Amino acid sequence: MASRDHSGRARDDSGPGRYAQDLSRRGSDPTAGKGSDIDLDAISARVSAARTETEARGETFYQGPSGIHLAAFPPKERWDDWAELDSRAWPDRKERRYLLVPTTCFNCESACGLLAYVDRESLRVRKFEGNPEHPGSRGRNCAKGPATLNQVTDPDRILYPMRRTGARGAGGWERISWDEALDALAARIRAAITERRQNEIMVHIGRPGEDGFTERVLASWGVDGHNSHTNVCSSGGRTGYQFWMGADRPSPDHANAKVIYLISAHLEAGHYFNPHAQRIMQARANGAKVIVLDTRLSNTATHADHWLSPVPGSEAAINLAVARHLIETQRYDREFVRRWWNWAEYLQACHPGRPTTFEAFEEILAGLYAEFTFEFAAQESGIDAGVLVEVAEIVAGAGTRFSAHVWRSAAAGNLGGWQVPRTLFLISALLGAVATPGGVFPNGLNKFVPRPIHIPPHPEVWQELTWPLEYPLAQNEMSFLLPHFLAEGRGRLDTYFMRVYNPVWTNPDGLSWMEVLTDEAKIGCTVALTPTWNESAYFADYILPMGHGSERHDTHSYEQYDGQWVGFRQPVLRAARERLGEEITDTRQVNPGEVWEENEFWIELSWRVDPDGSLGIRRYHESRARPGEKLTVDEYYGWMFENSVPGLPDRAAAEGLTPLQWMRRYGAFEITSGQGAMYEQQVPDAELDDVAVTATGRVYTSAPGPLSMNVVPMGAPEPDADGRRAVGVDVDRTVRRGFPTPSGRLEFYSSTLAAWGWPEHALPGYIRSHVHPANLAADQVVLLSTFRLPTQIHTRSANAKWLDELAHTNPVWVHPADAARLGIARTGELLRVETDIGYFVAKAWITEGIRPGVVACSHHMGRWRLDGQPRGAGGMMATVGLRRGDAGWTMRRRGAVAPYESADPDSRRIWWSDTGVHQNLTFPVHPDPISGMHCWHQAVRVRPADPGDQHGDIAVDTTRSREIYRAWLRLTRPAGPESPGAMRRPRWLMRPLKPAPGSYRIPDPARTP
Ligand code: SF4
């Protein structure tokens, strides 16, 4: 489409890629610019013309894996020398030439591909755009991807290692060398290990952003010190899936679905946000129906064909009403249920008097969910029964092309939230929509974690601060209870690392965190591995600056469609300079200041912990090619790509590259696509030796299994009493692979839940939430606090100025009917929101986008620093004063965000001052007694603020928060000597870092000295 630019010259509106291709080919200077109209016919015509032209030259026309024509992306053949006009030089036409280097975004868990545009002249990154070679993100990004540039150039970032001076948290810092920091930490860790105080070392991880490196380091130290953020994030979602299929994550094939059923805001911020969002929209374009359950009118809800705004916590009741409808109308996949559900085990355990026949099971199934009528679900959810019928009919028509997903949202908000995914997967399992095109896959089929060069043994210790007896079935570490456990004297930490993690701000009950972080008797040394200051780093003893997504190495793979891929995050300047012939041996040589990357840091630290190799640690960080020398990241990833990623060596060789060179050049490799129903695979005879088969068809063998290159964490069924390994399951006299569950089948009935104290929840069911209307006082409403904003992500994105300008505050959503009832006259008015342990003061946003009786507030905002601490994130962090009195803590703003002088002139242009409120500080802990998930929803009282209240005020009574912790602790059913095998936890359940089998046994007090 031709148009005119401001000077009246004709321009080509086909997009910057097309323009640049022309420029590169002709060496001419056509005018750049994007048109405001998209003329698909014209683009299509140009694609055909380009194809004809290319093929006429005898070259192959390359469209790329993104399926988008390269008019949208620079072709990979030209990534060594890509030319564009410099937008800053406008109206002059100044040409700039770039090396395009791939890496991976680190701003959420999706790991989308990025392409860094490295200026060949200055060797600086000018911008980040999408990597069209990345099979998950296919060249697309959300706003947070390109904003990586802001993080790299952030004037407030930390450039050098620092050590605190004065009291912890008082704000005194001195710059130190890496050697000083490494030697001090290595000495502490070595002492803890040699004095058998291994449990005093802990690495607490926020966003992992990688697969397995940190776990490997801790295992090499013999330390059970992995702690994660997962129980404040996704444990509720994972638990329901894990009990069904032995895989803790679903992989919905949205792109091929006929019906998409979402319980989360997937199109704006959900799990695998951009990769899933683009596939949901692709399906919609092909006619798929989208059903969204979200109490709030999210962006996702606005794209739904059916938006249901349920009473929070009632989602499982809706799922069960849909399931009941499928059962009652006999529109379930009978053959799938017969072959793949563990109904026989259920009958034997719960109906021993009945014959173990499928017909007997169907008779029982027909009545199992009788109470979950549409009327009951309507009563619980507040959704009209007629609407539920309509939705159930659409679901029934989906057949095996039913993709469904819940991750955080209701699963993370409610007591018993883990039953939301369990009941949601019940629908998938009834429809037989498991690992079918358009269905839901277990993540293990769509994720690939390559085997690393060295695999240390499982640690011989058990960390009770993260895996306490009270929570034997917790999906992940009970991370958010750490302050309470330390306060109770359950243990002490000598050295505590916080890595991409900000517990004071992210977790509930942050002031209890502050109390223990400032208590050196409880935590001897705190270390923040972080690119930026944050509320917890202010309480560290050492600040160790780590790189952003374009300044570090990681590998990762996520289940985003029916395929397996491996992505490679890399320091782009290192890769660029190596491409230009330089030798780089340490990522600090290319990063700003003395910013490092974790992998080289962990290798170096491990060497200093065990300098002579006498502890047996060093060997896991030694070169194989050069014995006795340090492992390098080049060798680590080079070995992995050469030996553990099927197909990559051949692909690389075809281009005359080593696998590492190939990954440095393209950033991601698709191993396979179209996996299909792997559980149906027949087990080869070679694997069937000395076979034993249980009454319900689980097959065990003495034959060794093939060595899998894919070490994705999944359920690990126990061997039988004779030590044979579980190899498959007998389905109609054929041994098939099945699922990694104890029974080998999909577990409609969980013998694990039954045996570990929860028989009443062994089937998919409905647990009334702690915020169920029956549990609310007359003057209370529910606060939804779990939703994300599309352009911010927890702590990391506050150091991106573009994102801060887009989103910087978090008003409380209030329905007009509630506003009238509560006496809130207008949007912007101050509210007091009272929780069980205190209150926060925020602004009201009166909107019909929220259900009456419910209020909502995004958790991304309210960043703060104490007076006297470094600025941190100038565009987002207000300065606050914090006081402790008889009634607890109070926090008040002393200085709002305002323009400031820095190396970035844009910091003088900050026009906003409202940066929201830190609501999480006012939430007590709510650990679900089964999944261990923190149940985020709060029962609150909302009223107009008091005359003296100010926006952002916080008050918290941590004594009260301890009482609430104890009340929730009383809901648990702890493991004990009477637990199966006298173990702390079922061994088949996942743990990010599994200790050795002997560590699972509960010590016998009679035999413990
Ligand atoms: S969805 Fe956005 S923030 Fe997340 S990895 Fe992709 S580009 Fe980055």
Polypeptide structure, described:
- This protein is α/β, with parallel strands linked by helices and 1009 residues long.
- Helix content is 26%, strand content 18%.
- The protein contains 28 helices and 36 strands.
- Strands 27, 28, 29, 30, 31, 32, 33, 34, 35 and 36 form a ten-stranded mixed beta sheet that branches.
- Helix 6 (235-245) runs parallel beside helix 16 (419-431), helix 9 packs across helix 14 and helix 22 packs across helix 24.
- The relative contact order is 0.13.
- Mean pLDDT is 92; it is low at 1-38.
- Please mark out the parts with pLDDT under 50 across 5 or more consecutive residues, or reply none: 1-38
Give the total of beta strands: 36
Structural class: alpha/beta
Major sheet size, sense and barrel closure: 10 strands, mixed
Ends distance: 83 Å
The distinct ligands, each listed once, are:
iron/sulfur cluster
